[in-house]
Design goal:
Strand content: 25-35%
CATH class of the largest domain: Alpha Beta
Oligomer: single chain
Largest sheet: 9 strands, mixed
Shape: globular
Number of strands: 22
Bound molecules: FE2/S2 (inorganic) cluster, fe (ii) ion
Helix content: 10-25%
Structural class: alpha+beta
Number of domains: 2
Mean pLDDT: 94
CATH topology of the largest domain: Naphthalene 1,2-dioxygenase Alpha Subunit, Chain A, domain 1
CATH architecture of the largest domain: Alpha-Beta Complex
Distance between the termini: 45 Å
Radius of gyration: 23 Å
């Protein structure tokens, strides 16, 4: 449970508010690379209550500006791409990608007024199939070298989904593993209920010392958490036969990101950013990565093409609050929700229905919620750091330190007595060696 002040601090992300100032200290994804191809039209971007425009000039340079012209506010996303920048349709003021005003053609020839105005501009980096920006003050931190953003294009599939609620409650679903065996349960004997692991790793054991059938997918995991230098590591601990444990390791990463193990048909992980559009809606970003080989065709097919009826367009789930998620109670003997087989629908239902901004003064956290509690404590401390003028955790200011080798999500079976920290160390070490 949180106080109203704490809930507001974590959930409200307009500029100047504590949560908004925190999220603005980190690079955030704003658009898919495919949304702004070479010579593409300017793209309106709505993020944390700000209205921006992403565009490419004729040289291919990418800019992100306040969408409202600093002359009299007209929308620049309708503007003309010409003469080295983006030209407003109202009186022809021209801006370059840095927000510099290059021309004010209706002003007198000798006027220097164009040098006195500036359009708000934010830096842009393209990585992992998406554009990212930094909207905070001062020098941006290093763009983080997260594992899931560090592979060639053929190893990554990225998409985004509109979610009709505050960013935090949806991200909290990512580090709430006990819901998987309920919300997403299928009663179809051909679909393995609950667990859905990718490449299962073994440490301290040989292949013949373990059979996948030693894991009971219906066993509720015992959770343990520990803080890292960038977030919270969550261990889901289940039995894997006598003297062995099955660990699933996932992460909350500051301040609006989660990292979860595959499956991507091999050794992989998924980075989920939850980026506010405003305080009551957001984009859920999914960066699917396979580490050991290019993603196969199946994992590259966009969801709306794979399950056409479940999506009304590339970014929107058909089932929503307004149509009561099209629940058909006669199908509740096929799956837990009666809302079809789409995991994204289940998650949208569970996280949108607490209300557009969940009132956390009324909740009752249980033992399965220790990861939520740890992540909130960490984010509230980070808000205090920002208030006090310090960098919040997870920011990197120099290139040599820009590595996150232990932000690695995976499924592993290990001897029961091996400490979790040792399991992580061995898996990270093996991964690092494989990368060399
Ligand atoms: S409002 Fe944009 S040039 Fe006047
Ligand atoms: Fe889920």
């Amino acid at each position: 449970m949180l106080t109203k002040e704490q809930n507001d601090a974590l959930t409200l992300t307009d500029a100047g508010l504590p949560g908004g100032e925190l999220l603005r200290r980190y690079w955030q994804p704003i658009a898919l690379s495919t949304e702004l191809p070479p010579e593409g039209a300017p793209v309106p971007i709505d993020i944390m209550g700000e209205e921006l425009v992403l565009f490419r000039d004729q040289q291919g340079r990418v800019g992100l500006l306040d969408r409202h012209c600093c002359h009299r506010g007209t929308d620049l996303s309708f503007g003309r791409l010409e003469d080295g920048g983006l030209r407003c349709l109202y009186h022809g003021w021209l801006y370059d990608v840095t927000g510099k005003c290059l021309e004010q053609p209706a002003e007198p020839k000798n006027s220097t007024f164009k040098d006195k105005v500036r359009q708000t501009a934010y830096p842009v980096v393209e990585k992992g199939g998406a554009f990212f920006t930094y909207m905070g003050p001062g020098e941006p931190p290093e763009f983080p070298n997260y594992d899931f953003l560090s592979y060639p294009e053929e190893n990554i599939h990225v998409h985004k989904l509109f979610i009709d609620c505050n960013y935090l409650q949806a991200n909290e679903g990512n580090y709430d593993p006990s819901h998987v065996g309920f919300l997403h349960r299928s009663f179809d004997p051909n679909r393995r209920p609950g667990l859905n692991f990718g490449a299962l790793k073994l440490v301290g054991l040989t292949k013949d010392e373990f059979k996948p059938t030693d894991i009971d997918p219906q066993e509720s995991p015992r959770l343990e958490v520990e803080e890292t230098s960038f977030g919270v590591r969550i261990f889901q601990n289940r039995s894997a036969g006598p003297g062995r444990k099955y660990l699933r390791v996932t992460y909350f990463c500051m301040p609006n990101l989660s990292v979860i193990a595959g499956p991507q048909g091999g050794d992989g992980q998924i980075g989920h950013y939850h980026v506010p559009i405003d305080n009551e809606t957001h984009w859920r970003w999914n960066f699917f990565v396979r580490r050991d080989a290019p993603l196969d065709e199946h994992h590259r097919i966009p969801n709306h093409l794979k399950k056409p009826g479940e999506y009304s367009d590339a970014y929107t789930i058909t089932r929503k609050r307004a149509n009561r998620f099209m629940q058909d109670r006669s199908t509740m003997n096929q799956n837990f929700t009666g809302m079809g087989p789409n995991f994204n629908t289940h998650d949208a239902f569970a996280t949108e229905t607490p209300g557009r901004i969940q009132d956390r003064t009324k909740e009752h956290l249980a033992t399965t919620d220790i990861a939520l509690a740890a992540s909130r404590r960490q984010a509230l401390r980070a808000i205090e750091d920002v208030r006090a003028g310090r960098d919040p955790i997870g920011l990197v200011r120099n290139a040599e330190e820009n590595r996150f080798p232990d932000m690695l999500s995976f499924d592993v079976v290990a001897p029961e007595e091996m400490p979790n920290a040792e399991v992580v160390r061995l898996v990270v070490e093996r991964h690092e060696t494989a990368m060399v």
